[in-house]
């Protein structure tokens, strides 16, 4: 899977303290990266539990997923992931920006993304064959941008511009499709979490002045 933390390399790497808000955003992007890169397991309940809060839409969605995962069967989750994203020939959903924006894979959105990745210092290992515009890859890049903003490698405008160019135009639609997919069960909650989170991100970036 293109873009998982194990597979996506960044030219610079530092550790620094981040605000609670930044840590929460990064944790959510990291969670989405993992569960969209490979089948999620029952252990992901612990990762999403800190966001579970009946007082917000995102919290309710996280609460729903955590409850579903508590008694989930790993094999069933694996079959669900396969039916959604792999299938026989193809899965129910194609989680690539090019497909959502043009109806075809490997189109202009992928070329634009590759240019931005080079500018920001991100590379794809040769061992990874899937296009970089997979939703999991884009979430992973956002993780690195958030981390790099705290250390000075990037700034909030890098996050804003990347989100506006590569996630905002289609990710909300993808997550909405995942939420209502015929073969989705536990992943229906992932779709809801992603859809709500993308809306929150859009609103938050809308409050800063774009360069």
Explain how this protein is built.
The chain has a two-stranded antiparallel ribbon. It starts with 8 loop residues before the first strand and ends in a 6-residue tail after the last helix. The protein has ten helices and two strands, in the order βααααααβαααα. The chain is an all-alpha fold. The longest helix has 20 residues, at 186-205. The model is unreliable at 1-15 (pLDDT under 50). It has a domain at 28-37 and 95-205: Orthogonal Bundle (TorD-like). Helix 3 (57-70) runs antiparallel to helix 10 (186-205).
Core attributes:
single chain, 211 residues, mainly alpha, TorD-like, two-stranded antiparallel sheet, 10 helices, 2 strands, globular, disordered N terminus
Count of discrete alpha- or pi-helical segments spanning 4 or more residues? 10
Q: What's the total number of strands? A: 2
Helix and strand run: EHHHHHHEHHHH
Query: What is the CATH architecture annotation of the domain at 28-37 and 95-205?
Result: Orthogonal Bundle
CATH topology of the domain at 28-37 and 95-205, which one? TorD-like
Indicate the structural class: mainly alpha
Strand order of the largest sheet: 1-2
Work out the strand percent.
under 5%
Mean pLDDT: 91
**CATH homologous superfamily label of the domain at 28-37 and 95-205:** TorD-like
End-to-end distance: 32 Å
CATH class of the domain at 28-37 and 95-205: Mainly Alpha
Proportion of residues in helical segments: 55-70%
Radius of gyration: 16 Å
What are the segments in which pLDDT stays under 50 over at least 5 consecutive residues?
A: 1-15
The main sheet comes to: 2 strands, antiparallel
Overall geometry: globular
